[in-house]
Design the sequence.
């Protein structure tokens, strides 16, 4: 007598959380202010304000923007703030830092607003493989958030997961 093949993973109460599903589409832009500094290092307020006034800000429409200075210049905080006031009407998000910082902040914002009630008291596996860029910070953020509601948290795939947390 032949035994029926059963998919025990599909039959289980195991819930999969895929961070890739929360990847917000949109252009990512690094805005490097070094080009607005004298010799890439010195901020001259009058010239800096003129650059800000005359720059085409519309090119950042619906983009996620990381504002940074790639040189070792000492840039006053107000300069980043001024650029933010110009980007705000056009961009989806403005952060100070690198493109990696930007991705982390975008995901953190998305995770913060999630309703995780579907994962309450369930074993949850956070999917590890993705085709979209998911920063490590996003995995940390969702792990901490799921730990508050899930019965257990694992990482990987159902066939080969790494246990991370189990409520006592």
Sequence:
């Amino acid at each position: 007598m032949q035994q029926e093949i059963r998919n025990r993973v599909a039959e289980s109460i195991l819930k999969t959380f895929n961070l890739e599903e929360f990847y917000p589409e949109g252009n990512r832009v690094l805005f490097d202010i070094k080009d607005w500094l004298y010799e890439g290092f010195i901020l001259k307020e009058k010239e800096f304000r003129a650059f800000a006034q005359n720059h085409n800000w519309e090119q950042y429409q619906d983009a996620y923007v990381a504002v940074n200075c790639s040189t070792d210049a000492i840039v006053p905080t107000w300069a980043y703030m001024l650029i933010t006031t110009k980007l705000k009407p056009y961009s989806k998000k403005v952060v100070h830092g690198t493109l990696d910082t930007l991705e982390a902040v975008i995901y953190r914002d998305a995770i913060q607003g999630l309703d995780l009630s579907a994962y309450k008291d369930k074993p949850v596996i956070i999917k590890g493989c993705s085709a979209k860029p998911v920063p490590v910070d996003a995995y940390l953020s969702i792990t901490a958030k799921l730990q508050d509601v899930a019965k257990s948290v694992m990482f990987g795939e159902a066939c080969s997961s790494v246990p991370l947390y189990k409520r006592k």
